[in-house]
Structures are given as structure tokens and as C-alpha cells.
Amino acid sequence: MSAGLRDRKKRETRQAISDTATRLFIQRGFDRVTIAEIAAAAGVSKMTVTNYFPRKEDLVLDTHEEFTAALAGAVATRPPGESALAALRRFYFEALAQRSYSLGIARPGFARLLLGSPVLLGRVRELQQEQEDRLAEVLIAEGGDAFAARAAAAWIVGTYRLLFGEALLRSRDGIGADELAGHLGRAATEVFDRLDASLGDFARR
């Protein structure tokens, strides 16, 4: 088997395990499903599940690496003349246009799963903190004052966190994706406009 085929097989297995686990969690609740039950339903061993997902929470939040790296990546690749805030504002609206789940836009069952589990919400907060830390690292690496960089990262990721929570709550209540996107777009415009007064020129390339 070629390396490319092996990698594809691993990705497919990982996705199948995550999909199976999420379905069971939505049906029965996160705390009421065991790793052994997930393994049996997915047709793999318990060890295979834990090899792919050392933490049970990551069976649900299975794209955490992409999630935590996204904001730092948007800033690191911004064009000349663009500030960090402008890059992250642009990134938010691009993701919103795609109705990205990374913004908290979800099906009602999935939103209820997250909101109903303190363990999953705790993991979301951990990932959001990692987002903030990685964003601050990029800003500091560009030569900015360390405290100012951490403060800017906290303000901006705090905005993302607030909008994420709003999206989850409204998703849980069954608001359609297009209606929700309109609501989030208006809310994001207001809060980014307010941030612009303080951070509009911060870390401009």
C-alpha cells in the first residue's frame, strides 16, 4: 500500500470514528456513551479509537488543530498594509459566508450536545485559549510589544468567543443557517467597528 493510500485510509477511519461517536453522543448524551460502545459501532478496536482520539472530547471536536491555528494563520499570511484586526475581521466574514461550523454554526442536535455537556464546553474553552495564545505568539514574533500583543489577542479572540457562543445558542434553538448568518454578520460588524477604534492600526504590515 502506498504512503498516499495509507494516509487516505487513516483519514477515512478517523472521520468514520468521529462521525459514529458524534451520532451516538447526540442520541444518548456525551457522558452516557463509552469508548467501547463507539468502537463496536464503528467496527474498530477500542485501542484504535484511543490511538486516533486520546481525549474523548476530541471525538466531537475532531478538527481542533485547524481550529486553534486558523486565526494565527490569517494574521501571519495577511497582505502588506493590512492590520491584524482587519485580517481577522476579513477571516470571520469569509468563514461566515461559508457557514463554517468553526464559528459555532451547527445543527440543533450538535449545538444541544455541546451546550449540554460541561466537559465539552470546557474543552471548547481550552481550544479558544489556545487560539488566543497562538495568535499572541504570531504578533510577538513580528516584533510587537509582548503585553500589547497579548492584550490585542485577548480582545479579538474574546470577540470570536462571544460570537461563537451566540451562534451555538441560536443554532440550538433551530434558527436557520442563513438567518443566523445574517444575525451574526450584523453583530460582528458592530463589535469589529468598536474594536477598530482601539486596534485598527495595531500590527499593520
Automatic annotation (TrEMBL):
<dbReference type="Pfam" id="PF00440">
    <property type="entry name" value="TetR_N"/>
</dbReference>
<dbReference type="GO" id="GO:0000976">
    <property type="term" value="F:transcription cis-regulatory region binding"/>
</dbReference>
<dbReference type="InterPro" id="IPR009057">
    <property type="entry name" value="Homeodomain-like_sf"/>
</dbReference>
<keyword id="KW-0804">Transcription</keyword>
<keyword id="KW-0805">Transcription regulation</keyword>
<dbReference type="GO" id="GO:0003700">
    <property type="term" value="F:DNA-binding transcription factor activity"/>
</dbReference>
<protein>
    <submittedName>
        <fullName>TetR/AcrR family transcriptional regulator</fullName>
    </submittedName>
</protein>
<feature type="domain" description="HTH tetR-type">
    <location>
        <begin position="11"/>
        <end position="71"/>
    </location>
</feature>
<keyword id="KW-0238">DNA-binding</keyword>
<feature type="DNA-binding region" description="H-T-H motif">
    <location>
        <begin position="34"/>
        <end position="53"/>
    </location>
</feature>
<dbReference type="InterPro" id="IPR050109">
    <property type="entry name" value="HTH-type_TetR-like_transc_reg"/>
</dbReference>
<dbReference type="InterPro" id="IPR001647">
    <property type="entry name" value="HTH_TetR"/>
</dbReference>
